[in-house]
Amino acid sequence: MIHFIGELPLIQTNDNNIVLSNINDAVDYCSNKQILGVDTETQGFDFLTKQMIMFQIGDENEQFVIDTRTISIEPLKEILESNEITKVLHNAKFDYKFIKRWSNIELQNIYDTYLGEKVLHCGKENFGFSLQACTQRYLEVSLNKQERNKFVEQSSTPFTHYQIEYGAKDVEYLIAIQAKQMELLTRGELQEVIKLENMATKVLAEIEYEGIQLDRGRWEELSKLNNKKANDLIFELDELVTTNNKLKNKYHIPTQIDMFAEVQRKTNINYDSPKQILELFQLLIPTLEDVNGKNLYKYRYKYPLINKYLEYKEVSKLYTTYGVSFFKYIKSDNKVHTSFQQILNTGRMSSSEPNMQQIPSDNKYRNCFIAPNDWVFVSSDYSSQELNVIAYGSKDPVFLNALENNQDLHSVCAELVFKNKWTDASLPDCKYTISKQKCDCPEHKKLRTQVKSINFGLAYGMGAHKLSDQLSIKLNEASELIDKYFEAFPSIKRFLTKLGNYGKTHGYITTFPPFKRKRFFPEWDGVATTPKDLGMIERASKNTPIQG
Q1: In 3-state terms, what secondary structure has residue 353?
Q2: Predicted model pTM
Q3: Where among 210, 238, 253 does a domain terminate?
Q4: Which of 449, 450, 540 is nearest to 496 (CA)?
Q5: Would you tell me the crossing angle of helices 490-506 and 531-547 to the nearest 10 degrees?
Q6: What is the span of the domain harbouring residue 282?
Q7: Cα–Cα distance measured from residue 501 to residue 495, given in angstroms and rounded to the nearest whole number
Q8: Which DSSP letter does residue 121 get?
């Protein structure tokens, strides 16, 4: 039965499934329930400026549809903030922000069916995680979503019975979906994961809701500085092109001096055009196929032009991505409000509009974000997080001993890999020799850097080609270095090999207990899986338990 609660007159209907009720009826019914479906309809996506115009609550038997333009849901506050009653929503972060903004109510004890579906089917591309997909998958019910757009910008016009039925349907099926999901989550030993994700979604909703202030003046000064740096680098690039014997005849274009220009360019190359840059660099490296930064990185020491170009691209990105164009993300409350994607294939999160996880680590940028009055920002980080996970998973005695005793793990590993070469490189006052701490010995620093690249590369399934590029050494030297490493740490090799083989055999991989987060590989096709896809699956299988 659908109960409509509002003061505006209904557009006439003969539908006997809709009865008029009041807010006390909703409170009386919901107070005795252990689990309730909750949903909202809004004028748009921005919780700061678009109103919540409809609120729905109920279960499979009774649904209460409340016109929040005329009726306050404050009497439901105790129910919605109760830790004893589970509230089931789909994409809970969205509803949470609107409910808090327009009713000053903070939902507690949330179960998100969207997150439940993501946990169950993580990694399955184009699987379908919408409420419509879930009702079809679990209940064989087709939800008609055509009414959704009719709420956009709706202000004072009465709701139609179609809109009321639409709102009711969104809560009617939530509890049944949650029950079906919990059966599968329990079977897959994923109860702890969904519990964790449901707790996290409230925290993330609060972060999105609160937002963060930005010092526009300081940010704009950085933008001007990077614009000048980028322009200066263009002239430096021109100079490198026109003084290179392989390039100058084609690209040095004499120009008539403009008495009004401060400096004349020596080429007409557009350094922001990948096509032009590829043609330019192919004169130096004929086999080069693209100018992707990762592909160019290995040439940076051999070709000063390429090194300067990479520097230009970095500064140019700072100017374009983190310049005044960033101000478009400042909302009506003069704050930046990011949006989190809570479950990625790796087990990590991402953020967008804007991507706050990619803000440059330089404090010149981070200090542009302002804490409210009487508050401060506290920054903290895990120490050697990936290495601790590798140590835990592999049970390697050297890793465990070094980490438990606060020794410099990279130096400990380098000593075992390079043996006499490491010992012979010790200076008289070597901190490592004295206390197993990071030292200042020049040769130790070089050897430590090589092993450090392997240590962290393990978490990403790095092979010899990647190590070769990263350390600018020959491929056979990189292969030999990895062989030496695994000779020194056979338990780590066994651990990573086991993970890689599991993913290739089963088509999925899990993280460590008690969470056992599962990631499926859509490319997997049993024995028919291509070698290229098996290689990708193997690398991801090594990476996911560590990153997840």
Answers
A1: coil
A2: 0.89
A3: 210
A4: 540
A5: 120
A6: 211-380
A7: 10
A8: T
